[in-house]
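Usage example:
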Amino acid sequence: KPIKDRQRLPVVPQGIERDDFLAALAELKVQIGNENVEINDKPLKDGWYMEHPNTHDMMTILDEEELVASAVVYPSSTEEVQDIVKWANKHRVPIFPISMGRNLGYGGAAPRVRGSVTVDLGKRMNKILDINPEDYTCLVEPGVSFYALYDAIQEKGYHHLWIDTPDLGGGSVIGNTVDRGVGYTPYGDHWACHSGLEVVLPTGEVIRTGMGALPGNNTWQSFPYGFGPYSDGIFSQSNYGIVTKMGMTLMPNPGGYESFMYTFPNEEDLAPLMEIIRPLRISMILENVAQLRHVTQSVAARGLPRSQFYSGTGPIPPDVIHAAAASAPVGDHTWAYYGMAYGPAHIRAHKLALVDAEFRKIAGARKVDPATLPADEYYFSRDRVAAGVPDIHELRWVNWAPNGAHIAFSPVSPIRGTDATRLFALGKRLHDAYGIDFFPAFCVGLREMHLIVEIVFDRDDAERKQAALDCLRDMIDEAAAMGYGEYRTHLVLMDQVAATYSWNDNALMKFNEKLKDALDPNGILAPGRCGIWPKRYRGRGWEM
Amino acid sequence: KPIKDRQRLPVVPQGIERDDFLAALAELKVQIGNENVEINDKPLKDGWYMEHPNTHDMMTILDEEELVASAVVYPSSTEEVQDIVKWANKHRVPIFPISMGRNLGYGGAAPRVRGSVTVDLGKRMNKILDINPEDYTCLVEPGVSFYALYDAIQEKGYHHLWIDTPDLGGGSVIGNTVDRGVGYTPYGDHWACHSGLEVVLPTGEVIRTGMGALPGNNTWQSFPYGFGPYSDGIFSQSNYGIVTKMGMTLMPNPGGYESFMYTFPNEEDLAPLMEIIRPLRISMILENVAQLRHVTQSVAARGLPRSQFYSGTGPIPPDVIHAAAASAPVGDHTWAYYGMAYGPAHIRAHKLALVDAEFRKIAGARKVDPATLPADEYYFSRDRVAAGVPDIHELRWVNWAPNGAHIAFSPVSPIRGTDATRLFALGKRLHDAYGIDFFPAFCVGLREMHLIVEIVFDRDDAERKQAALDCLRDMIDEAAAMGYGEYRTHLVLMDQVAATYSWNDNALMKFNEKLKDALDPNGILAPGRCGIWPKRYRGRGWEM
Ligand SMILES: Cc1cc2nc3c(=O)[nH]c(=O)nc-3n(C[C@H](O)[C@H](O)[C@H](O)COP(=O)(O)OP(=O)(O)OC[C@H]3O[C@@H](n4cnc5c(N)ncnc54)[C@H](O)[C@@H]3O)c2cc1C
Ligand SMILES: Cc1cc2nc3c(=O)[nH]c(=O)nc-3n(C[C@H](O)[C@H](O)[C@H](O)COP(=O)(O)OP(=O)(O)OC[C@H]3O[C@@H](n4cnc5c(N)ncnc54)[C@H](O)[C@@H]3O)c2cc1C
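Running the assembly step on the lines above writes:
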């Protein structure tokens, strides 16, 4: 990939003189060590998932130099994070914390404000501070990935403890959880499963939430609330603090588990299927955040480029997709449901029988026999993930486009046929209009579902990038007009998404801004993240 | 009960002239109606549970005139709550919101600051705004009690929907939930089960949290988080806002249920029993917040006065209690575990068999056959409550003392033998020292338990009241020194409990105060609640 011409590096944050900035960095080097302050003045490298950059979004939807860090700093302790925060206040430098920076689809490692100093917490603060085999909890630092946590538990031989992992295991437990990510066991709602935070505030103080505020306690990871206001929530999807430690509950080994997969032939099966899924899900007969996936993404999940199937432009025609699906081990279908039953055999049998009877009410429903599938079939990745085993198979569909990158549209809806159909139709129409292949996957939570639509694009094709972004922006606006909002979004879309949560003349955003100004009077911490701009930035055209 | 001499009524809030205060109230009468502003200038009446006062704590541990309202106001809408808040800001009058004011054991209807204007939300804002039989959710106003919600669901014939109720069904869903109360089905963690708030801020603006901020949404009650900072938590156990609407999820009828009760003979059985309970609870074999109760409270739960069993002073001797227990239908024991298994018969059988095998490892464990118990036995109250059927049997043990009142000590600990034993010993020693009967009940959450110790006292006996308060204060301090903190506390003890959460030089309280000052610059909303004093009050000796 050619390295583009660049402006003089590093990109200094707006409003600060280059020399002052470099002098400030020199000061910080004295504080936390020369080698722990890295100026971003070399060519940007995208790397790949396992060796991803921390200076920008490796899957950028804009020009990659737009949202780029001026420098990256590596604290080794909570105290050093405090030092960095105080330094940022002194010099009015915007800083942007990441745990591991693998927030792909939502901005990767990029900061929201160009030229921010990225605080890469994960590199040196990567200890598992505790695994408690009696309480089924752990306490981790920002650099602990799902892989690392899983491995540590196996090493200790704690087979009674399970973790919950998102589709990709390389992200950090903290980064994923504070962005309110999801996984696929019954402990899939990571935010709901955490217990206790240590947070460095934007003015440099450090607090512990919940029972962590009680000296000598032994319940920080067991009881999330503590006494008084339960403030953890305001540190998720926000820019109010830097999380330096987090407690996480661990799932008890359920004593057995069994993946299952059903396929359904027609697009129109979506609505009746959702009506079947909802009551089964709410009553925990369907126990995990299952995915209901569209065949186009299933074909893409093989990891082959789209060009192997089709050489035309515009969305790949349905007959091509169905032919490709028909020739694969799973066979032709439109929807595939991946679920798992947990518990001993007779308990699983009870649930599986109920599911089977219900799912078969859809004409043409087919239960896929795993014995017929080859070992590298996507099914087995879902099987691992639903059993809390970290994986990266999911990355394969990113190969669909050359120089593949992706960005996500993630609206929330009830688990209902009408809602699923409306969102599907909206996405389909706009993908068609922009000539984009449509990858809808419904991730079914307890009473709601996130529809995750991943747009895969060639990051070196400016026109396709623009089409992806335009399509996303249209989907967000049209969905909001129908009452659907995103659960999470990409850095570039945060202003737009935040603006859809506008009830009562944007009362919630005004409230968020009031908190921001109280907690971060100099506006140094992740300005603009989740659409929240500090006073110094407001009304100056930073939104995009 | 004799009516005491009183100072000139109403008790005007400190710092305001009587005439100014009365003029301000007259102004408010014009705004929300004469009949909706009630000056508290009549003798205080304690009433009883179903007809409780809203002017003070009917079970006060201080003199009942200490924490007393100057007036009570009755808004009929969110707009009127906003009017009241703006009025309070204009006149710098402390206001104190209650939903129903049945927070017995934790302060009842009393305000923290003497002379506050109580905002009784429940009287006129008592609508069930929605019951959604598909999503298993509801949306309620502050005056909706657990009884009212239950009845409305039955009336609609929605037998597939269960509610979760605390021991007493007369409290409000909102009041109980914002104080982070607990119930006894698998949906017992009320805070975790709510979804969506409407909140009037201390400066008069109104926000909706979660998906509620998205106009036209249909997910406010299904997906709690929305987009951006998840702020609900800071409106629980706090004084940052007045909750005017709340969404609550409803449990699916599990398709069958079955209470069970085991007794254990010795005090020392506590530790091994906890070791047995913990893994069963975390893995949801024990599915609900069960109670493990001490025999003294079981005897008291019959509703007879202590004088029927014993006429001496000091703690009732063990042999008297055991003799009383032996003559009752359940028979003698020291600990009683009340649990429930949910689901169809064969699923329950699986869980009950596991529980039985484990519990019987304690020598002398006995499963009580419900068929041997009379209909008004306490067991059946627990049975109803664990099935989400509101009840008030639990009130009976308050009759233990003449003019019975009670106050709770509620520390959190891991579910562990060592912790249970330490807390039991601490409580026992201090109860003995103060000559108080000891009622410990362990309410076992998922990974932690609340030990709820209810001290029953004669509210007309100043000496016994003082002993109860002294005992509580000692328990709080000693427990904190051992690392245990309260999950919730009485108004009178909030400063003390908040001060135990002191990690890093009271960093959490300083943070709470920062939020308070940002959100409530005039300090009008529930000053002092949960130990959080607004700037105007700090350093002026308001703590107690
Ligand atoms: C193919 C594919 C599949 C995916 N599937 C899933 C999935 O199933 N579920 C899912 O949830 N995600 C999914 N993702 C998105 C993403 O990969 C994961 O969420 C990942 O775990 C996040 O990466 P991270 O931990 O490195 O987060 P980071 O990038 O470190 O953090 C994410 C953001 O949170 C904030 N943040 C991070 N750490 C802190 C901190 N300590 N204090 C304050 N703020 C902080 C920062 O703003 C940061 O930008 C997927 C991505 C891809 C490419
Ligand atoms: C015998 C006995 C058994 C009990 N068992 C239990 C139990 O099992 N579980 C349990 O949780 N509790 C229990 N309690 C305590 C109490 O009865 C319940 O918690 C009850 O539901 C609370 O009453 P309420 O809804 O009237 O709350 P309120 O008194 O209305 O509210 C409680 C507090 O919350 C705040 N508040 C209330 N409404 C709002 C609002 N709209 N906005 C902002 N702040 C607000 C106020 O500060 C108020 O003082 C028990 C009490 C007794 C006497």
